[in-house]
């Protein structure tokens, strides 16, 4: 699940495993762009290490 939020006035996306996730993962636009630019490497990393 996900939600949009703000951190220090900047928009962020917050990723959660479930509604009660104590340690959500959040990031802004710059890191989101970096993830998108490297999505194939991330997919390969997950495949090789799962």
Helix content: 40-55%
Tell me the strand percentage band. Answer: 25-35%
Secondary-structure class: alpha+beta
- What is the string of SSEs from the N terminus onward? EEEHH
Q: Helical segment tally?
A: 2
Low-confidence stretches: none
Provide the spatial order of strands within the biggest beta sheet.
Answer: 1-2-3
Describe the fold and architecture.
There is one protein chain. With 50 residues, the protein is of the alpha+beta class. It has one domain. Helix content is 40%, strand content 32%. The chain contains 2 helices and 3 strands; from the N terminus they run E-E-E-H-H. Strands 1-2-3 form a 3-stranded antiparallel β-sheet. It is flat, with a radius of gyration of 13 Å. The mean pLDDT is 97.
Offer a concise description of the structure.
The chain is α+β, with helices and mostly antiparallel strands. Helices cover 40% and strands 32% of the residues. It has one domain (2-49).
